[in-house]
Amino acid sequence: MDDNIKNYDETNLDSEQKQFFNSRIEYLQKKFKKRHVNLYGCQNKDEVHSTISSIIDQRNIKSIGFADSSTLHEMDVFDHIEKFGIKTINPFERFPDGIFKVFGLQPDGKLNLPEDEYLSKVEKLDDLKRKALITDLFIISANAVTMNAEIVSIDGSENRVAGQIFGPKYVLIIVGRNKIVKDVDMALWNKGRACHSTVIQEGSTSNNSDRTHLIIVNEDLGI
């Protein structure tokens, strides 16, 4: 009996899963290249950090902005970016209890502010969102990536989708393998209506071929 067959473990599908992921990345890279979007396949958090470092080091990045994203937290992107000593604008930075820092410390982790003070803080939050849109690099996630090479983003406060299509010099989008879907219909299927702004990015112009960078991680990430 062939040693490879004899030693094959049918309960361990890691190798097959990795091969499947790599084949999809290779397919999507060819499609996205034609649309002037730079796609990177990463197996884990360390590779994500290495790719981010390369993107920053190869460009004159002096400021970085963020939109809110559980994927960025899962990949420890915020902590990694701190190592560069670059100016960052993160409107959604939180205290350990989950409250946005822009609202200040709150007793028992509950947001309890007089209406006028609350509205003033919201205005400050919106101002930070705007400032994040004119940074050199805007780091976000997306709701889906289709096999037709489309990036689908659905947003409630619109800052994420706004920066994705215009504003920052460069955009870095990070998603997990679970966000790869067949087409736009599948990307939008069963989505709630709490977020009313949807962007379907089909690519960039040739003169902006270095603007959009997409990392797909071989892990299930985000919501």
Gist?
With 223 residues, this protein is of the alpha/beta class.
Description:
By secondary structure, this protein is α/β, with parallel strands linked by helices. The chain has a domain at 38-93 and 133-217: Rossmann fold. 35% of the residues lie in helices and 20% in strands. It is built from eight helices and ten strands. It has helices at 3-6, 14-34, 45-57, 70-74, 77-82, 115-132, 159-165, 184-188; strands spanning 38-42, 63-66, 87-89, 137-140, 144-146, 151-155, 170-176, 180-181, 197-201, 212-217. The strands form two sheets. A six-stranded parallel beta sheet has the order 1-10-7-4-2-3, sandwiched between helices. Strands 8-5-6-9 form a four-stranded mixed beta sheet. A hairpin with a 4-residue loop joins strand 5 (144-146) and strand 6 (151-155). It is globular, with a radius of gyration of 19 Å. The model has no long low-confidence stretch (mean pLDDT 91).
Strand content: 15-25%
- CA-CA gap between termini: 45 Å
CATH-level-2 architecture of the domain at 38-93 and 133-217 = 3-Layer(aba) Sandwich
Total beta-strand segments: 10
Unreliable stretches (pLDDT < 50, length at least 5) are none
Largest sheet: 6 strands, parallel
Return the CATH topology of the domain at 38-93 and 133-217: Rossmann fold
Helix content: 25-40%
**Name of the top-level CATH class of the domain at 38-93 and 133-217:** Alpha Beta
The side-by-side strand order for the widest beta sheet comes to: 1-10-7-4-2-3
Estimated radius of gyration: 19 Å
The count of helical stretches stands at: 8
